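Page header: ASSEMBLY MODEL / two components / 405 residues total.
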Amino acid sequence: MDGIHDLGGMQGFGAVDHAPAEPVFHEPWEGRTRALMEVVLDAVQPNGGEFRHAIERMAPGHYLTSSYYEHWLTAAATLAVEHGLLTRADLEARAGGRFPLSGPVLAPPVTDPVADASEPRFGVGDRVRVREWHSPGHTRCPRYVRGQEGVVVRLDGAYSVPDVEAHGTARRYEATYSVRFDAASLWRDGQRGVWVHVDLWDSYLEAA
Amino acid sequence: MSGGGGDPAPMAPVEQRVAALEALLTERGLVPEGFIEEITRRYETEIGPMNGAKVVARAWSDPAFRQRLLTDGTAAIAEMGFGGAEGDHMVVVENTPAVHNVIVCTLCSCYPWPTLGLPPAWYKDPPYRARMVREPRTLLAEMGCGVPEDVEIRVWDSSAEVRYLVLPQRPPGTEGMPEAELAGLVTRDSMIGVARL
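Prediction written out in full:
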């Protein structure tokens, strides 16, 4: 989905709040959230990518005004409710206030993933173009490279396609590649000597 | 309470939401005794950038290991006893006088846990994820890591299964330094690529 999580290249965010060292967990609730996420995943056994997609479905305003552990809390609670483990009413009664959950899944379930495509269609040095599509479901194809041309620099073997596995029990395996893009052609800003590499599944690409 | 219109009820503070989730899961018998404390302790003490620092120091000290590390990062890192979730498919990218590498995850927070631990907050926040693929030379300079114009920058967006580790350049004046001492020089940020040593 074209969600708020897909941040690559967006402007206006300002400085990175960088510190050379920081505690693993800033607050005790962060560590507890980390553990509760594992409890929920163990209990509901979600499909691969389903947890990530639950974060992606957060309301944009909430996503941008909460820390990453709050994203995990929201996604864990969302999956617990969607899988029938808990109810939102229980969560809100116990929390003593509103407990925002992620929005609904927009994509239909994937029931026929078609055959695997584990054999790579492209080799190192091949020019490829990223398909310009706008899936309503989970995908690992960032918006900022869609429609862009790049060069394959590495083959990484075949992996389960996130767009399929996040939306059902079916699986499809495809070759994956690291594709190099010239930053100047991505952003049309004349910068020099900057290459951005994005790791992409076979079906995200077409020959350029 | 979730409301369909009008003024929504105030959002419960995050600590209360976590406590609510924990209480409900515990009542259903799903949280084993001591589990939360054990998970927290493991991430605070057992994994972290000290592991990656040992890998880098070995690569600086042992040319054959360095070659194996750059050829098959997962296998070479496993030789040192590190691996597992978010480290199953490692690619190590080497900084040289002509090339500076930096890692990012624009879509979420992918990061090599076995070698670097859990990612710092800024790595997961929007400014870093939005800007590192768009204006890395400017952002690196802002973060105190100026990269000269004649040095190529390679940004690696961890969008699939591979997790990346930057092999920083060995600092000058460290010839003959023992491996354990070298590891003490290697910072987390140098292995993300937002600092030079």
